[in-house]
Design goal:
Length: 117
């Protein structure tokens, strides 16, 4: 299990009002290639939690995350994995859906902290 490091983002609603959003969460990776992601989204102090299954594959420094049904179903996101001190950093390279690749370089950077418990 690894924790998703807090990430704060300034957003605007449909009326142009500013809000502060922070996302935290956990990934649980099973040896079967299945995973579970729990994300807590805090917007102006209110918390919403989402939990869903996923699938994954690790090849070298690449992590592929996909739908719960499997990596051959639906969209997949491919990340380059590196280690900075005690943290794993995922930098999105591309998203693939229905055999079409979308360049996502520089769009998403996720920092994971290894759990010690």
């Amino acid at each position: 299990m690894v924790d998703l490091s807090p990430r704060a983002i300034a957003i605007e609603d449909a009326n142009g009002m500013p809000h502060q959003m922070t996302a935290t969460g956990q990934f649980t990776f099973l040896t079967s290639g299945r995973c579970l992601v729990v994300v807590n989204v805090h917007i102006d102090g209110k918390v919403s939690t989402g939990k869903h299954g996923c699938s994954y594959r690790i090849e070298g420094d690449r992590l592929t995350l996909g739908e719960e049904a499997g990596l051959d179903q639906g969209a997949r996101n491919v990340f380059r994995v590196s280690q900075e001190s005690e943290r794993l950093v995922l930098e999105e390279i591309y998203e693939e859906a229905q055999s079409v690749k979308f360049d996502r370089s520089g769009h998403e950077r996720v920092v994971l902290q290894r759990r010690t418990d």
